[in-house]
Amino acid sequence: MINGKIFAFVMFLTLGLYIGNSQSNYTNDQSINSLLAKKRKYNKKHGSGYRIQLYNGSEQRAKNIKHNFMMKFSEFGKPKMSYELPEWKVKVGRFNTKLEADRALNKIKEKFSGAIVIPY
C-alpha cells in the first residue's frame, strides 16, 4: 500500500516537472513572440474592446433611437449610426472590458431594452 502511494507520488512529480519544462520551452519560441507583437500592433491601430448596440433595423427608427439616446445618456458620448446590409445599426461607447460595458448596459437597458454588448 505504501509502495503504491510512493509510486503515484513519484509519477505525479515526474509528470509535473515534464509538463512545466515543456511549457517553458514554448514561451521562448521566436514565432510566438512575433505573433504577440503583431497582435499588440493590430490592437493599437484598430482597437479592441466592446460597444453597446442600441438598435438594429430601419433607418428612420435608428435616427430616432440615436436622438433619444443623446438626450438621455450624454455621458456615454455620441452614438454612431452605420449601415450594415440589410439594416441600420446604432452603437455607442468604447469600453476596454466586458465588465465596463455590462455596467453601462445595466443603466442603458432601463430606457433601451433591446441594447446588447458587442465586440468591436
Shape: elongated
- Note the total helix count: 4
Give the termini separation: 58 Å
Strand order of the largest sheet: 2-3-1-4
The secondary-structure element order is HHEHEEHE
Write up this protein.
The structure is a single chain. The chain is of the alpha+beta class. It has 2 domains: 2-45; 50-119, 2-Layer Sandwich (Alpha-Beta Plaits), CATH 3.30.70. It has 4 helices and 4 strands; from the N terminus they run H-H-E-H-E-E-H-E. It has helices at residues 2-27, 30-46, 59-72, 98-108; strands at residues 50-57, 80-84, 87-95, 116-119. It has a 4-stranded antiparallel sheet, with helices on one face. Strand 2 (80-84) and strand 3 (87-95) form a beta hairpin. Residues 48-118 form the SPOR domain. This is SPOR domain-containing protein. GO terms for molecular function: peptidoglycan binding. It comes from Tenacibaculum jejuense.
Tags for this model:
120 residues; alpha+beta; 2 domains; four-stranded antiparallel sheet
Summarize the model shown.
It comes from Tenacibaculum jejuense. The protein has 120 residues and is α+β, with helices and mostly antiparallel strands.
Task: Summarize the helices and strands and which ones pair or pack.
Layout: H1 2-27, H2 30-46, E1 50-57, H3 59-72, E2 80-84, E3 87-95, H4 98-108, E4 116-119
Antiparallel strand pairs: 1-3, 1-4, 2-3
